[in-house]
Amino acid sequence: MDQSNTLTGSRMQILVNSIYELNKGVRHLFLLTAGRSELPRLRTRLETEDVDYFVQDVNAAKCNIFFGKAALVQTARHIAMKPLNQMSPEEDFMLGTLLNYDKERQCQRFLSMVEARQTVRMAAPT
After folding, report:
1. Sheet of strand 62-68, all strands in order from the earlier edge strand to the far edge
2. What secondary structure letter does DSSP report for 84?
3. Position 97 pLDDT exceeds 90
4. Number of C-beta neighbours around residue 63 at 10 A
5. Residue 126 pLDDT class (50, 70, 90 cuts)
6. Cα 35 from Cα 64, distance rounded (Å)
7. pLDDT tens profile 108-117
8. How do beta strands 52-57 and 29-35 pair?
9. Half-sphere exposure (CA, 13 Å, Cβ side) for 81?
10. What span, in angstroms and rounded, lies between the C-alpha atoms of 23 and 69?
């Protein structure tokens, strides 16, 4: 089996498990990074399961797929309007919270990003 089939299989397994968690109410929003070649199969599965989603371009080879409950997907769509690495600390925090990431770690990440932003501002010539 070549590596691309293995990747597709593992991504599909992650997707299936995530849909199970979604249906059981464990989590309500998910983010999966996948190769473009995997996207058609993943989309088909999401549409078959009637799960809301949107695709965010990462680069020519990869994309992010946000999926889950409609209101959370729509909210994530409005927050993730630019590459994830270009989001403000506030946008990053809100998205991490929607994705149900560990709240204490999200707060630590937010504070670290705010501190880094303040350091850059202080170092900038006036």
Report:
1. 29-35, 62-68, 52-57
2. G
3. yes
4. 18
5. low
6. 9
7. 999 999 999 8
8. unpaired
9. 6
10. 10
Tokens 């680069």: give the residue: 59
How far is Cα 24 from Cα 19, in angstroms, rounded to an integer?
Answer: 9
**3-state secondary structure string across 3-44:** HHHHHHHHHHHHHHHHHHHHHHCCCCEEEEEEEHHHHHHHHH
**Residue 17: how many CB atoms within 10 A of its CB?**
11
Q: 18-57: string of b/e by CB count within 10 Å (b at 16+)? A: bbeebeeeeebbbbbebeeebeeebeebbeeeebbbeebe
Q: What's the pLDDT band for 28 if we cut at 50, 70, 90?
A: very high
